[in-house]
Amino acid sequence: NMVCDKCDKKLGKVIVPDPWKTGSKNNTEGGGRKLHENKLLSAKKNRFSPYVGSTFAKCRICKSSVHQQGSRYCQQCAFKNGICAMCGKMMIDTRDYKQTSV
Question: Model pTM?
Answer without folding.
Answer: 0.57
